[in-house]
Amino acid sequence: MSATSVPGGAERIRQGSSIGQPLTRRDGPLKVTGRARFAADHLPPGTLHAALCVARIAKGRVTGLDLAAAEAHPGVVAVMTPGNAPKLARHPDQKDGPFVFRLDLLQDSAVRYANQPVAVVIAETLEAATEGARLLAPRYEAESPRIGLDAGTVFTPPAIGVGEPPEEGRGDVEAGLGAAARTVAATYETAAQYHNAMEPHAAVAVWDGDRLTLHTPSQGMAMAQGRLAGLFGIRPEDIHIESPYLGGGFGSKGMVSGPQVLACMAARLVGRPVKLVATRAQMYGPMGHRAPTRQTLRLGADPDGKLTALDHHTLTASSAFDDFFEPSGGVSLTLYASPAIAVRHEAVRLDTGTPLFMRAPGEASGSVALESAVDELAQACGLDPLAFRLANYAEVEPISGRPFSSKALRECYRQGAERFGWAGRPLQPRQMRDADGLLVGWGMGTATFPALMFEGNARAELRADGTGTVELGAHDMGQGAWTALAQIAADGLGIPLERLTFRMGASNLPNAGIAGGSGHTATAGGAIHAAGLDIIGQLADLATNDAASPLYGAGNAGVEARGGRLYRRDDESRSERFEEILARAGRASLSGQGKASADPAAQKAYAMHAHGAVFAEVKVDPDLGQMRVTRLVGAFAAGRIINPRLVTSQYYGGMIWGVSFALHEHAAMDPRTGRFLNDNLAAYHVPVNADTPAMEAILVHEDDAVVNALGVKGVGEIGITGTTGAIANAVWHATGIRVREFPITLDKLL
Ligand code: MOS
Known about the structure:
α15 links the parallel β27 (627-637) and β28 (694-699). This protein is α+β, with helices and mostly antiparallel strands. The termini are far apart. The longest helix has 25 residues, at 520-544. The chain folds into three domains: 44-143 and 198-248 and 253-283, Aldehyde Oxidoreductase, domain 4 (2-Layer Sandwich); 353-372 and 382-452 and 606-749, Aldehyde oxidase/xanthine dehydrogenase, molybdopterin binding domain (Aldehyde Oxidoreductase, domain 4); 455-597, Aldehyde Oxidoreductase, domain 4 (2-Layer Sandwich), CATH 3.30.365. It has 16 helices and 28 strands. Mean pLDDT is 95; it is low at 1-11. α8 (363-381) runs parallel beside α16 and α11 runs parallel beside α12 (520-544). The protein binds dioxothiomolybdenum(VI) ion. The site of dioxothiomolybdenum(VI) ion has 11 residues, from loops. Pfam families: Ald_Xan_dh_C (PF01315), MoCoBD_1 (PF02738), MoCoBD_2 (PF20256).
């Protein structure tokens, strides 16, 4: 049964005692006491350690390795190079399905980007492997790399297997701009960013014949199984992935990366378990990144401040050997009402690793440019930025004309502005100072993210003693899936959380889809809930057809489950414990299956997006340009809230990432060598506590009867959208300087 095929919208959710509760993370105590075992914590008997030797050039080939020196080092067991790497069943450049990216797996001597693995040293200790990798001292034939958006050949998006970036439009943009009373044309640049999950990509690989056990962090275990099966020529079901905890993913663990596969190859080569943990620097290259963008926006407005045209052109980068586009323009298709919209993407091919999904891929970078340009146009029109946004409020999805499944954005604007104290903000910049003489500025941005859903499966069991088990191959990157999904599971089965055993994070459980696109709660949660409904339906059949039950004759739809009992809907005084129903029926247990996927009819009929409004205050030293975000208020509407504590935490995380995007993150490469200048957390800046403002996240109520069975829209990525633009707009409001190149650093204010 498909959960989304049940009519009745959000009303159909069985909400008992768990959903909606602000529970703390159920895995929290394990994590803070060190008992949660992450991938790299595993060390099966006989495990060898592997270290990557990575390229110090960005383009060319390896002409020599000092194999003898590495092999002679005490403790080194083997050196894996293109000369002896295990044969693969399929070349890793061969694309055999969606979401397949080309990987560098020692198939030849070519170097396609800096930090590309060129050999793997396997040794008895990590120290020996690391020293062995150093001793290899590769020699190269180097070519000049293409680095930076001006360096490569421009091409337009091909099919990328992960959805093409939107090339869409409606109306006549040129006519709209020509007729406008006020126009803005501006170009915004965003820097390349790297995911920098706290936990590096790690893999502990154990072969048993042609069966592989892999401890590795994954946002998509079933996809990883498929990719590995193709590469090794074995069956997906012969690959067992354990991924109960991730120290962050942000998209970088959505697809299996080259180094994770290299660990499996190394284990094959030496016939022993192998553990490989990428160093921080090695995370810059083979694991994806957010591509830089140069976005040109042209906006026009009539004398009342209503948009007449919106043109959003993105130039971004892909690698020289694969196709991934940061689809920045998508936000302009859905956010503001405009009679004419055009969105286009182009990219250049650069000698870098292939970019990848990174938290709010497209929306994050696109929102920066759109929210800045909207702010510039509001100023040109002499309108308050909030009034301007309200004047251009999209009652239906601008590009398609479809109604929104729900949209409480107006309420987000209202509650956010009120809490922030937006009213009375001076229109002109440089009008406010604090007691210390610092310039104060207020800015805002609209947050948006699509409500996505994938396909997920779950199974459940209810036992004679009234306890239950729900399990599926879901993933927790730190977002709280262990808790939120268990809450849904308990209510789905109609039992208290204490009576539930909840399992996830392993590939031998039902495929729960990918934890990405902010769609995991909707997908995995939908499957879980459907599995619970399956069992409750069976239980209801047993009870309502049994003359000995107080529920006899109520009919399957005439009962509901909560707290471990079935109740008659028309007479709450008549109920029966699950244990009694099962005992009389002589059943030791009931098992159920659940499946959830997007409903194509609803997808076609409705636009589905979460929305929010973010308000920022910054303070800038007028002499030094030093700036701080001092306050952030975000008000978000994302459908049903499963756990307000965890959702608030997700919004905080997203908003802090917005601070990071606005003021800190910038992967710098030497254009001559293509090598990273800051592939470490000392020089690649992310906000520390001192950079983190006072924050408030307001959970705006929103009912959505059609988005999915649970009525949830997802909260993982939206917080970063809106925030970066709000901060940039606040910097302008404080200083009168419009910085269009991100991150905003103090040199740009002097
Ligand atoms: Mo996300 S970038 O969908 O992990």
